[in-house]
Specification:
The protein is mainly alpha-helical and 107 residues long. Among the domains are: 34 residues; 36 residues. Helix content is 67%, strand content 0%. It is built from four helices and no strands. Helix 3 packs across helix 4. The chain is elongated. The N and C termini lie far apart (68 Å). 0% of the residues are buried. The mean pLDDT is 88.
Length: 107
């Protein structure tokens, strides 16, 4: 599928938002399906997260900022990995949970 120009997309979004969203989904699916089979599952997972962020954002600007933050975090992970310094807990406090051992209660 050929990519429409920015102006064509802008005009479609203004006059037919539902048609724009349909076309957006088709273009994304076309791009994913053209990638290697080994990457398609990951790309669909990333797209699922992006779509979820867009739905709950409340505004297009909030969605943009959320998705931009995701991209920036991914860039930082890649940068650290290339420098050989990346560890999974480096980017978020979520990765720093205390692990408690499970013990059976006394009888």
């Amino acid at each position: 599928m050929d990519m429409p120009t920015f102006e064509e997309l802008r005009m479609l979004a203004e006059r037919d938002p539902v048609g724009f969203e349909t076309l957006r989904g088709e273009l994304i699916e076309d791009c994913i399906s053209q990638s290697s089979p080994s990457n398609q599952r990951r790309l669909r997972g990333i797209q699922f997260v992006i779509d979820a962020r867009r739905r709950v954002a409340g505004s297009p600007m909030k969605a943009l900022l959320d998705i931009q933050g995701m991209m920036y975090d991914s860039f930082l992970e890649l940068r650290l990995a290339l420098k050989g310094q990346w560890r999974p807990a480096d980017l978020s406090a979520e990765g720093r949970a205390q692990v408690l051992p499970l013990r059976r209660p006394p009888r």
